[in-house]
Amino acid sequence: RFHGFVSDTSELYENVDVAVVPSVRPEEFSRVCAEAQVRGIPSVVTGPGGAGEVVAHGETGLVGNADDVDDLLAALLRLDDDRAELARFGAAGAVRMRELFSIERYHQRMTEVIGAALGQ
């Protein structure tokens, strides 16, 4: 089902066990992965690019090879077979998103970068 643009994605993530982002081309940043992980939903993605940077392979989800259907399937089956790992990835993803991508972290990092550019 194609939803088109959705401003409030909360309802879309209800009852989701894993976010799957099978990109075949590099993305700059994967908002889908970030949105899922901040909600404690692990991601199975293909790299290279943004999705592979947002998801920490083996920590917050699994990153497979682009254009490798068998690799993607193996990752999904692995998480389906190991629900404890699925839960660990989800919890770790939520923590990682807060640490790296929160408003506070963004503000801190921008202050550092601008300060360095100004020689402060």
Tell me about this structure:
This protein is mainly alpha-helical and 120 residues long. Helix 4 (83-101) crosses helix 5. It has helices spanning 31-38, 50-54, 69-81, 83-101, 103-117, and strands at 19-21, 43-47, 61-65. A three-stranded parallel β-sheet has the order 1-2-3. The radius of gyration is 16 Å and the shape is globular.
Which helices and strands, and how do they pair?
Blueprint: E1 19-21, H1 31-38, E2 43-47, H2 50-54, E3 61-65, H3 69-81, H4 83-101, H5 103-117
Parallel strand pairs: 1-2, 2-3
Helix pairs in contact: 4-5
| Biggest β-sheet strands, sense, barrel | 3 strands, parallel
User: What is the residue-mean pLDDT, rounded to a whole number?
Assistant: 90
User: What share of the residues does DSSP label as strand, in percent?
Assistant: 5-15%
Number of H/I helices:
5
**Low-pLDDT ranges:** none
List the helices and strands in order.
EHEHEHHH
Give the helix/strand class: mainly alpha
- Give me the count of strands: 3
Strand order of the largest sheet: 1-2-3
Shape from CA axes? globular
- Between the first and last Cα atoms, what is the distance in angstroms? 51 Å
What is shown here, in short?
With 120 residues, this protein is mostly helical. Helix content is 50%, strand content 11%.
What keywords describe this structure?
mainly alpha
